[in-house]
Amino acid sequence: MKKLLIGALLAFFSVSSMAVDGYKNIKFGDTVKQVLSSKLCNFEKMPNTSGLKQMSQYGCADFKFSGKSSLVVATFIDDKFRKLIINVDPDINPLLNSLMEKYGAPNAMSSQDELNKAQVNSDEYSLFVDFDKGTVSLKVEKSKNKPVMALLIYSDINFDKELSEIKNKNLADDI
């Protein structure tokens, strides 16, 4: 009985320490072709506004999330899937509760000061909650004269590092 309990605890901690590896049937590292063939939605290539030749993005407006059509952007670096951004309902409480049920307590979130400022100045704010080592994030932003925007973001654990390395290399080539 002790061995079974110890095994279950080890399995729990080893699984809970693993970062998210993708979204549904697409995995970080999949090629553009693999992601497009997943039929997650009808992706179309987007113009490259990043200025980085290594980066490409595909978007769609027919992605189903919580029973509604949502805008989605998939980001690729060197033809490898690295990030998925889903535009979600600004009423984030049900989603936030579901994320906490699935991933546990947040790893990081906006400070209490930022939350207080958002309540006082409801015209402009940016708030976030990160789960699973930052691989799952919920961001809520409000800009003057624009509606509230809520984004659910799944990203490869090395996305920021990889992007920073590309930018540094590009700069090193120029200086």
Automatic annotation (TrEMBL):
Keywords from the UniProt entry: Signal
Signal peptide: 1-19
Name listed for the protein in its UniProt record: DUF4252 domain-containing protein
